[in-house]
Amino acid sequence: QVQLVESGGGLVQVGDSLRLSCAASGLTFSSYAMGWFRQAPGAEREFVAAISWSGDRVSYADSVKGRSTISRDNAKNTVYLQMNSLKFEDTAVYYCAADPTYYSGAMYHPSFYEYEYRGQGTQVTVSS
Fold first, then answer.
1. Which of 5, 28, 39, 81 has its CA 20 to 30 A from that of 18?
2. pLDDT computed for residue 92 by the predictor
3. Partners of 38 in the beta sheet?
4. What is the Cα 32 distance to its own chain's centre?
5. pLDDT at position 104
6. 23, HSE (Cβ side, Cα atoms, 13 Å)
7. For the segment 44-74, what is each residue's pLDDT rounded down to a tens digit?
8. Alpha carbon distance, N-terminus to C-terminus of the chain
9. Cα separation, 106 vs 44, whole angstroms
10. DSSP state of 75
11. Does the pLDDT value for residue 107 go beyond 90?
12. What are the phi and psi torsion angles at 31 (to 5°)?
């Protein structure tokens, strides 16, 4: 059984940094590209970042580009999302997902539901 478990969310202040983790099990992790998505209250779930199987290729949504870094450790079956200079609008539930295909596009990125495996999410709340 494949499981993706996100962690690292919480209540932070504007300008703070946060690192989210997604631990995968039940799959050959190094054979899957990984993606991060988020859903703010009242909004659709949107793409945040993606990383290829070996980590040599990454892509970001414009909303987080320059403030966030996606990375992975295939030995630990874990993908990370480091977010810096957090803003109010980063408040959302953050989800990770896994798919055999790496999608490099940010603007026309497949939806969360098109990824083969999907996590349950972790809440990030940015306050003043």
1. 28
2. 98
3. 46, 94
4. 14
5. 83
6. 4
7. 999 999 999 999 999 999 999 999 999 999 9
8. 40
9. 16
10. T
11. no
12. -95, 5
CB atoms inside a 10 Å sphere around CB 43: 10
C-alpha 86/C-alpha 91 separation (Å) is 9
Give the C-alpha distances (Å, rounded to integers) separating 122 from 11, 64, 93, 99: 11, 17, 5, 19
User: What is the CB-side half-sphere exposure of residue 3 using CA atoms within 13 A?
Assistant: 6
Amino acid at position 9, single letter? G
Pair 4, 119: CB distance under 8 Å: yes
Whole-angstrom distance, CA of residue 75 vs CA of residue 128: 37
Rounded CA gap, 54 and 5, in Å? 20
**Cα 62 from Cα 47, distance rounded (Å):** 10
pLDDT(109) > 90 = no
* pLDDT tens per residue across span 1-51: 999 999 999 999 999 999 999 999 999 999 999 999 999 999 999 999 999
- Please give the single-letter amino acid code of residue 74: N
Give the number of other Cβ atoms within 10 Å of residue 109's Cβ: 19
* 101: its two tokens: 């295909």
